[in-house]
Amino acid sequence: MMRLMVAAVLVAGLSACGDRASEPASASVESPAPAVSPMTPASGADTLSAQGFGPLRIGMSLAQVEAALGPDAKPEAVGGPEPEVCDQFRPARAPEGLLVMIERGVLTSVRLTRSSTVTADAGVSIGDSEAAVRAAYPTLDEQAHAYEAAPARYLTAWSGAARATPDARGLRFEIGQDGRVSSITGGGPSIQYVEGCL
């Protein structure tokens, strides 16, 4: 009987020691890293802004665009009804899903399509909700979608000059019927085009 009581005391003692050993010492506990909000502005040059993307700046010449990210990755594809007036294409060294618009030899906008993983300057990316766009850009112009019924729409965040002037710059978010971002376009007044160069 005495042996059983000693064994029970030993087991209870070892069990208690094991519980304490598994608890971290209070001095070594680190605070968890603060949660990053999905609306935390994206950093780095590889985000889309109203001014361009990476080395691309709205207003550059076609030659400068090609020097920065290469020529048209698919020169056989038609990027506009009159390519010498307006053309849209993906430069060879650009991320997948990123298109540039060249009008009369000048870069006027940069567009992110469904296959893009690039984010806009406030952290919004393709597939994000309309609510995420509204949280990141509190002042937005809203227009009905040209081809889809509501809730599809266009939301545009303008910066600087008024949108009717050649110096206007902005970001346009195309929202699909699912309430999510299907494309993002940054640049000048041409961001208002609804179908490529049109």
Structural notes for this entry:
It is built from three helices and ten strands. It has 198 residues and is an alpha+beta fold. It has a seven-stranded antiparallel beta sheet with strand order 4-5-6-10-9-8-7, with no helix packed on it. The protein has a three-stranded antiparallel beta sheet with strand order 1-2-3. A hairpin with a 2-residue loop joins strand 1 (48-49) and strand 2 (52-53). The longest helix has 21 residues, at 2-22. The termini are far apart.
Short description:
The protein is α+β, with helices and mostly antiparallel strands and 198 residues long. It is 18% helix and 24% strand. The protein has helices at 2-22, 62-69, 130-136; strands spanning 48-49, 52-53, 56-57, 86-89, 98-103, 106-112, 141-144, 153-159, 169-175, 181-187.
Question: Would you spell out the secondary-structure blueprint of this structure?
Answer:
Blueprint: H1 2-22, E1 48-49, E2 52-53, E3 56-57, H2 62-69, E4 86-89, E5 98-103, E6 106-112, H3 130-136, E7 141-144, E8 153-159, E9 169-175, E10 181-187
Antiparallel strand pairs: 1-2, 2-3, 4-5, 5-6, 6-10, 7-8, 8-9, 9-10
SS field, number of helical segments: 3
Question: Which CATH class applies here?
Answer: Mainly Beta
Shape: globular
* Contiguous runs where pLDDT drops below 50 for at least 5 residues: 1-44
Q: What's the total count of β strands? A: 10
> Can you write the helix and strand succession as a string?
HEEEHEEEHEEEE
What do the pLDDT scores average to? 81
CATH-defined fold name: protein yfey like fold
Strand content: 15-25%
The order of strands across the largest sheet is 4-5-6-10-9-8-7
Summarize the amount of helix as a percent range.
10-25%
The end-to-end distance, rounded to whole angstroms, is 94 Å
Class of secondary structure makeup: alpha+beta
* Total domains: 1
